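seq:
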Amino acid sequence: AVTGFIGVLDIYGFENFDQNGFEQMLINYANEKLQRHFNRHLFEVEQSLYSSEGVDWAYITFNDNRPCLELIEGGGGNVGILSTLDDCGGMGTSSDRDTNFLAQIHQKFGGSKGSNDIGNSKKKKKKNKSQNSKEAERHPNFITPKFGKDREFIVVHYAGEVRYTVTGFVEKNVETLSNELKDLGASSSNVQTASVFAASTSSVPTSDPNTTPARRSAIRGVSVASQFRTSLQMLVVDLECTNPHYVRCIKPNSAKAYNVFDSGEVLRQLRYSGMMETIRIRREGYALREEHESFFKRFHLLLSSEEAKQGDGISHLVKVLSKRLKLTDAEWQIGHSKIFLKRDLASKLEVLVHLRIRVAARVVGKFCRKIARDRASKLLTAWGKHRVHIMRECRKARAANKIASVHRMHKARKSYTASLACVVRIQCLYRRAAAREILRGLRDPYSDMDFKELEVLHQGEVARLDVAVSTKDFKTAADIEKSLIPLKEALEHKRPLTRTVLELRIAEVQSLLDDAVSRKAFTDCPSLQSKLEDLISKRVDLPTMDELKSAVSLAEKDVGDAAARRNFEAAASAQAALDKAKDRLDEAMRAEGMSPDDRAHGGNCRDDALFQSRAELEAAIEDTSAKIDEAIATKKFNVATKYQSELDELEKLRSIMPSIDELTAQLNELKVEVEKAINTKNFQKADALQKDFDALETKIADERCKAKEASSTTPSSKDNLNFINENGESITFDGRYRLEEEINRFKLLVAGAAASKKFKE
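struct:
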């Protein structure tokens, strides 16, 4: 499998100090090597761009620093400085060996004679006379200093000249680790130690055939310079196999301070990083590259009208400008999508465009000034004529202005008077509306409250009334009862529409419609018929109480079935439907004046609070039994079933509402217990029993009075009650149920008349 890598190479920059030694030599050698790779890479990028655009680039060259590299590392049949340094590791002191090394490089690269290199050195006298007489050729990148040449030499790098001091060169180049110690480390039983020494002892073949091979001592091994050169060559080999990208870091100042720009320091970094050479390559090439369309749009102004008619396009523009400016193809070339030109030529073209625009601006300005002068002369002539006409019309205008001012004054006064009257009228209407709103609030203090708020307020007032009655505060009770009258009217007026109320209204409208037909008042029939149809259409949105209860029962069954199947998602949706059905039922029951708690009793049973005595309960039971018999007789079995369930509920109330006989039996039992307590002298118990005895006796008396009243007010089954309604018709009531229906109808009629403010009706 093919594997790759992403590497980051961070190297020292080019170094040039006051005194440069062996370390600076190696660092600058590495920078020279990498700069050559950078120059070649940059030239190849430029070459690929020119080739893709079809531009001739044969005459563009880049500054090759290979002579400097050959001077340092050797090659081309010559021995380099590093190889010479490896040969100078013989006997003698460190200073003598450095002097010998300096003399050899001056002789080989500086063009100096062997006898005059260092002076009176004994080792120089032993050199071959033929070699001393022959003057070596001077290397272009090596300079022998005029002063201090016994300790220094100068190398011309790509970034500039660097003066090196040879003190310690030979000593630092010697490998301090012997071969025997390396072999011993390589044979270590520790794997990591053996790998480290094996890597140091392995010889890496050089990839550059022009480079002098590293020399190896039998005792000390390969020198430091040779190892560095080998490692650098391996790095270059790796770089040749990669796609490099270069990042040049430039410090604006050496003090690391903000808002400080040291131009000399920046220029030095640019020179040492090789950017000057990069800029030179770009300048030797075509520094400006621009798209055909953009270039033509910018510089087509340089064409005259005749030249523009002769041709079109970038080729025609370049041909005309080349002929006019006497330019060659080396100044600019046309690529497939871009045009390449020198920076000097681009600046010259910019100046020409600027001059052309200025000339055109002058021509346009001259033309505009001529037009302005013509217009000014015509304007002055016209103004003179107009002035004469104005003077003639001045007297007429003053007279007309006087007349117009009087007319405008009259018109403005009339408009102001009308506006003032309108404003006064609007203010009057606004104050009347505000006063009407205040009066409405005084007349109906409950106009801003909804049905629920009124119901809560009504319950609170009733509770206050009960408290006032229980505390015998009759004055407060009278005030509360007086305030309850408008409260009840507002409550009935804002009571939500239910099915029961809707049916009563339908019956009322139907009776009015029938009455109108009987009186042949056909003009009233369309409105009544429309109102009746509107009320009938609302039956769909207002289900009956039984339908709402059936919906609640069905929803409860769905919840139970879903829970039994453990289908919790369906149970959740069914529960939501159940809550919605219960809320709708509670709202309907509240609108009917019933408590939502009655829903638990099925809605058909009656509360024991409706009956004040056992006699009333027995009368209700007797009435319900009669309704059952009547429903069975008319074969209305559904109605009979409904009344039967109501009868069962009423019979259950007998257990909590005892009869007079049962109360009398309880009274006798209490009497016996009171006598026993007195006989046992338990007077405290006797007192409590006596209170219960008195209360029960009072209750029996009340029951007898209520039973007597019920028997006196309840007509016999044989007698029928007659009533004359609002239309003058005689109505016969054959039962309590018919009477209650007529009472409810009259209540709705009264509420409707009060709502429409028909107080006489």
